[in-house]
């Protein structure tokens, strides 16, 4: 059967992460109900983003300028590089307001399953940057998943020749977390990495 | 501070029902990552919907034709009208495939709080339709909320002069529902409306 424009919109909205068929229907109806105040601005914003947002050739971040605002800033610390998987991870770290160094966005992880090898990630750029004598430390902030950790190990191997300290994020209990609800892996990691009180 | 195009897109996505700030960020990144396969088709679909979808002047449904496919169909039962609050409710009933009559979409409920009176709803159209001698029954399928029920009562009053049966949806335990998880109101309604086994 031929899909109507409305069905097509719902179908496409439903493909966005976090939206199922039901919320896609609600979103589509909401858009139509608020054509001027919701749909039109959203439509324009999408066009603007498509037109203006590009990948920073320095770090892989997304911004309307290249190099991105973080790479272009002179107030950031050149001696430390934080390696993340995706742009969303970079944003998450920026929101924490605790890191003021530079970034490298890998663009994913190594994955045998998905057939993603080192050449598809931003690793060459990282090694090039890490070779700069100004750089003292590389923080591997990949996800605490099998693929994330495999990637971190791979990168550590390839940073051996650079004279930098390589660190990773701490594992442990999330702030506000209750022991009873934590998985064994997290609890085990928190125990192993216990700190003097 | 001036909002960047990307921030603006995330802000607007976050206003859609069912999307919070976090899922809006993920959706925006997903769009940028899959520019050709996700963002462009979505952008086009929105333009098409904005251009082609209109409100059916017979029932208030949304469709690319006016009257809508349901009103235009000759295979639907003219003797029964189902009154719903919103287009989403009409779709939900259509999905159940159990109703083959006509619809009236009110476009909301009476609401003292939001200052919505009868003139803002599709009630005049309903009364006009119900006055047709062909019509035997009006089903009030408004939500089981205070506003929904107030609206249903108001409509019942105004249908007194029409020679039609006025019914409402049954209250009771949802199929698959467990008693222990039901609220007192539903359980009470289910008890009061108990049926011979």
Explain how this protein is built.
2 copies of one chain form a homodimer. Helices cover 43% and strands 11% of the residues of chain A. With 197 residues, chain A is an alpha/beta fold. In chain A, helix 1 packs across helix 2. Chain A starts with a helix and ends in a 5-residue tail after the last helix. The interface between A and B is large, with 44 and 44 residues.
What's the helical proportion of residues of chain A? 40-55%
Largest sheet of chain A: 4 strands, parallel
Number of discrete helical segments of chain A: 8
Distance between the termini of chain A: 67 Å
State the shape of chain A.
Answer: globular
What ranges of chain A have pLDDT less than 50 throughout 5 or more consecutive residues? none
Regarding quaternary structure, what we see is homodimer
| Number of strand segments of chain A | 6
What integer is the average pLDDT of chain A? Answer: 92
Q: Proportion of β residues of chain A?
A: 5-15%
Structural class of chain A: alpha/beta
Using only C-alpha atoms, the radius of gyration of chain A works out to: 21 Å
Order of helices and strands of chain A: HHHEEHEHEHEHEH
Q: Biggest protein-protein interface? A: A-B, 44 and 44 residues
Widest sheet: strand ordering of chain A: 4-3-5-6
List the topology elements:
2 copies of one chain form a homodimer.
Chain A: H1 5-13, H2 21-33, H3 35-52, E1 54-55, E2 62-63, H4 69-72, E3 80-84, H5 87-96, E4 102-105, H6 123-130, E5 137-140, H7 146-158, E6 165-168, H8 184-192
Parallel strand pairs in A: 3-4, 3-5, 5-6
Antiparallel strand pairs in A: 1-2
